[in-house]
């Protein structure tokens, strides 16, 4: 054991606690970078990862980042005890997985526990993700991972059945089905506590779009109250931390763009289980630029979801949809929210492609509950829009989430700087690239600026005349419009033939 | 581009530059943790990895660690420009390797270049190491990795041929062959610029042991002068940074205990190429607790070394040796150095097992040059010890490395606190565990305290009487002796039958 003087570093590391020690002290005492030490004082102890500092610390000093000095409750200059400790047990199982052996249920449990307890370094987490990516995961492994992600996270406890849910694999611009599906389902008396994500690479996530109309960040308790009151919600999943282990895995998957299938499946199904979902519909869009490119990939994923959800007694159905071009007319948080309001208010500006898709999807989910005969769900869903029940329910949800239930589509004013994109020639639009549309919307300021985005007058399959407007770009600054112009010089969002 | 106010953080990160930015600023501007940004001011720019800080920074601030503010030459409060930038090209190739595709020569070149230029994060480096571990490396990949590790590192330029070298796979306590082999070889007029490692998990590395007698840290230029003058050297490889890329790979391999075979081969052969070696002997000890456990593993490695060195026109031979128990009598830097001096001075205390092994090894290396007929090398090596030429050369090397050429074995005084380990019964020593011997020597204070260690009176195969001394432990503090006692209560270093 060593006694070192604390040096307070006024920064947090955001993950596993880190301490910094002097290089020659480390060398003399055989402590290496990335190894673990237990730091203790009279009243507390903590395990931290060692960083080596060449010059900045004296040999008798230890640099403590915020997580460490706060937990130890110590001040600059106090003396702490430092003892090297071994690696957590789960590093052995990570190594086992790297050696292509299947992990037992208990071993995955230990890994998830150590992730949640912040005992694993990023380097070890990456090794785990890499091993799952390269060696794959068996159904038993994925099932265990799902189970322990749920067990170690928060849970919504609604004490009701059935609980309905929906998940979309994503990658399609403007695809705002959740904000229509949830009110329809809740208007029929079902419970649907929907959590959604924010945008990562798209112009808007469902949470970003809903945020234009209401709050989306709630605690688990607040969420339970909202759902008990109005039957449904549309909130940001990140705020309620339903799956802490999953968030930490995603943190290292993101910079490597690594998405091991087993982990993706576990991540999705765990979030459904955490809200208590009993009946779930999966939307699998396929298209050149969607996440799923070929029908075979969608069919494969469908089978995997079926096996995994079956292990948890969850009823599920999947819908394979066309993800080749944007859905709806608005792209960007405010413009997509306006589309949803128009649609639910039966305004003729409500986008028909979105209505078609969402009623089909909702219909399948309704049929899955067994309360409606096969083939009748879509009509039920349409009826709930047409009789105004879905609109009324949506306003109840907005009010329950602290928004203005009197909001009208015309209250939503898009960005004041605009740019019209016109057809260069006459013909039919044979391609509308999701990726370029997303790029333009992001250059215009999405998702940080909710008023930014694109409004499409034409879409895939439409005929255009030369000089006819295809879409308008909205932004809140001229600089954003300049950025859009630069992109349009380099790439074309539409093909006219 | 964003403009942020610099906040100086008086700590270095020791690797890729890191900057810290405010969480809500990051969210608004769609910058994620572990992504890269270019930071610039009037006179300099640098690429750094983003860390997200929840509370400690204002939205208009950026936290700069030492590497960053020093390179940018800026002070607290100055404004810097921040632009998100993409990942380096080599991340694509790392991903390709994870997808089980073979990498081209040019792709490995780019990876090594990006490693040396510190463009890759630890997370990306781990992904590369994991992929090599899990998917293996082809001979072409290993050859390319070796080539570019050498090209991007420093090189010894002795303008001479042949240049001899030796490598031992390791794992055997007390195995100090280098310090005998180098003087023999150099005394015959050959050039042998030997670089060695310090201890990582053993009681002493060759560099730690040589340091008892002379300096071991030199620049490349100093090393060239020493070798030109006396024909050989025994120095610490870490000080001359011959293979910068390799050091960075080892940094992430160590905490995971991951040793992908291709990377290990490349690492070893690159270090030989960096000193210009043309003839190399490989010592492959096998034993229950050595790095190689079975003869099959040694044979496999022998073939791999042969193929790889052949691609660089290097002549090589291997010797498979017994690594089941310690070699020599002293364990620990000072005690091992004393053994070597005794041996070269033809003192009867010189350990015979070390002499047998080293003359056999040296003989094979001498025969490899073609100057000596097969089967005659060992006799030549023995002659150089017996006629005092090797001892004389060793003193020349010690002097050239700034040590005292008049040093005698009796000047080397081991630790003043001792503990005798005695045989509990009469019989034959049928096992002497390297791992327990190493543990005891480290508990006694090795390698940080050179005077600490073990002196063996008996070894594997020897007969002992009840109560007879098997070994003495030396330490410089009573606390270290207490630690040894604790270990001896838990595990036994010898089996007597």
Descriptive notes:
Two copies of one chain form a homodimer. Chain A is of the alpha/beta class. The first copy, chain A, folds into four domains: 2-85, Barwin-like endoglucanases (Beta Barrel), CATH 2.40.40.20; 90-136, Transferase, Pyrimidine Nucleoside Phosphorylase, Chain A, domain 3 (Up-down Bundle); 164-400, Nucleoside phosphorylase/phosphoribosyltransferase catalytic domain (Pyrimidine Nucleoside Phosphorylase, Chain A, domain 2), CATH 3.40.1030; 413-496, Pyrimidine nucleoside phosphorylase-like, C-terminal domain (Aldehyde Oxidoreductase, domain 3), CATH 3.90.1170.30. The first copy, chain A, has 18 helices and 18 strands. Chain A has helices at 23-28, 66-72, 90-98, 105-116, 122-135, 139-151, 178-187, 206-210, 220-230, 244-256, 261-274, 295-310, 333-344, 352-368, 377-386, 389-400, 434-443, 478-490; strands at residues 2-8, 18-22, 36-41, 44-53, 61-64, 79-85, 164-168, 192-196, 232-236, 279-286, 315-322, 330-331, 417-422, 427-432, 453-456, 463-464, 469-475, 494-496. In chain A, the strands form five sheets. In chain A, strands 1-5-2-4-3-6 form a six-stranded mixed beta barrel. In chain A, strands 12-15-17-13 form a four-stranded antiparallel β-sheet. In chain A, helix 3 crosses helix 4 and helix 7 crosses helix 14 (352-368). The radius of gyration of chain A is 26 Å and the shape is globular. The first copy, chain A, starts with a strand and ends with a strand. Chains A and B meet through strand 4, helix 3, helix 5 and helix 10 of A and strand 4, helix 3, helix 5 and helix 10 of B.
């Amino acid at each position: 054991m060593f006694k070192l003087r604390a040096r307070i570093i006024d920064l947090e590391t955001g993950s596993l606690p880190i301490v910094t020690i002097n290089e020659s002290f480390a060398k003399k005492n055989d402590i290496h970078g990335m190894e673990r030490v237990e730091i203790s004082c009279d009243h507390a102890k903590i395990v931290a990862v060692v960083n080596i500092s060449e010059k900045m610390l004296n040999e008798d000093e230890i640099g403590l980042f915020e997580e460490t000095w706060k937990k130890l409750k110590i001040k600059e200059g106090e003396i702490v005890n430092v003892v090297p400790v071994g690696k957590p047990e789960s590093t052995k199982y990570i190594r086992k997985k790297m050696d292509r052996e299947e992990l037992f249920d208990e071993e995955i449990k230990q890994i998830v526990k150590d992730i949640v307890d912040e005992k694993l370094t990023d380097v070890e987490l990456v090794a785990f993700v890499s091993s799952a990516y390269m060696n794959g995961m068996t159904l038993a492994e994925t099932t265990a991972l799902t189970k322990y992600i749920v067990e170690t996270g928060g849970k919504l406890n609604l004490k009701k059945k059935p609980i309905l849910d929906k998940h979309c694999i994503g990658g399609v611009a403007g695809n705002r089905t959740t904000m229509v599906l949830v009110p329809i389902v809740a208007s029929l008396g079902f419970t649907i506590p929907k959590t959604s994500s924010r945008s990562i690479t798209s112009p808007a996530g469902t949470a970003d779009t809903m945020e234009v109309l209401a709050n989306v960040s709630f605690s688990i308790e607040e969420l339970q109250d909202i759902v008990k009151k109005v039957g449904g919600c549309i909130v940001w999943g990140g705020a309620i931390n339903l799956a802490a282990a999953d968030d930490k895995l995603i943190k290292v998957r993101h910079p490597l763009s690594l998405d091991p299938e087993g982990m993706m499946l576990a991540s999705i199904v765990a979030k459904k289980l955490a809200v208590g979902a009993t009946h779930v519909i999966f939307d699998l869009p396929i298209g050149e630029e969607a996440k799923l490119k070929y029908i075979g990939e969608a069919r494969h994923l469908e089978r995997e979801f079926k096996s995994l959800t079956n292990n948890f007694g969850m009823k599920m159905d999947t819908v394979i949809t066309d993800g080749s071009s944007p859905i709806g007319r608005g792209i960007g948080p405010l413009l997509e929210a306006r589309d949803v309001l128009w649609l639910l208010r039966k305004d003729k500006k409500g986008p028909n492609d979105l209505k078609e898709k969402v009623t089909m999807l909702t219909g399948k989910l309704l049929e899955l509950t067994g309360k409606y005969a096969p083939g009748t769900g879509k009509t039920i869903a349409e009826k709930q829009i047409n009789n105004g029940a879905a609109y009324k329910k949506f306003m109840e949800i907005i009010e329950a989430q602290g928004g203005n239930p009197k909001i009208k589509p015309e209250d939503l004013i898009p960005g004041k700087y605009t740019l019209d994109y016109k057809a260069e020639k006459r013909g039919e639009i044979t391609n509308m690239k999701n990726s370029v549309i997303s790029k333009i919307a992001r250059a215009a300021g999405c998702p940080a600026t909710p008023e930014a985005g694109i409004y499409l007058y034409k879409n895939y399959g439409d005929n255009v005349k030369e000089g006819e407007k295809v879409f308008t770009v909205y932004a809140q600054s001229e600089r954003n419009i300049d950025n859009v112009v630069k992109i349009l010089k380099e790439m074309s969002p539409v093909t006219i033939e």
